[in-house]
Amino acid sequence: MTGPVGGVGSTSAPVAQTATSSVDRADQMGKDTFLQLLVAQMKYQDPGNPTSTTEFMSQTATFTQVEKLEEIASQNAALLSLQRSLSAGALVGHAVSWTVEDGTTQTGTVSSVRFGDDEPLAVVGGQEVPLGRLTEISLPAQPGA
């Protein structure tokens, strides 16, 4: 016995949401800004009272941490993209329902998946449907069932 995987929530039209791989905020400094500040500090320090080695090493370690955190964020974004692609590919041959912009529900079988710039698109009856619009996914009908 197969059953559909239905959406959760109200009966109103769902809002498509996509995950972003990066966040750019004007109020946060990146590694380039941190490095510029460190170089400026070294350039304008008092030669008679230089920055201690311990403080310099601490700042260098902080810079390394910032770089590694950016690498981790980049790897997480790549993993998320791969996971979304694999999930989308698994939909081929499944019956799906989705909500169109006018609020009506359409159904069909996913014949292929197209990978665009933002989000994978399920191709149903020649129409490209963003995965965020899907409201129901069910196993394909078995012959003789």
Folded structure, characterized:
By secondary structure, the chain is α+β, with helices and mostly antiparallel strands. It has 2 domains: 28-89; 91-138. The chain is 34% helix and 22% strand. It has 2 helices and 6 strands. A 6-stranded antiparallel sheet has the order 1-6-2-3-4-5. Helix 1 (31-43) runs antiparallel to helix 2. It is rod-shaped. It starts with a strand and ends in a 7-residue tail after the last strand. It holds the Pfam family FlgD. Keywords: Bacterial flagellum biogenesis, Cell projection, Cilium, Flagellum. InterPro entries: FlgD. It comes from Geodermatophilus saharensis. Belongs to the FlgD family.
Task: Name the descriptors.
145 residues, alpha+beta, 2 domains, six-stranded antiparallel sheet, 2 helices, 34% helix, disordered N terminus, FlgD, cilium, bacterial flagellum biogenesis
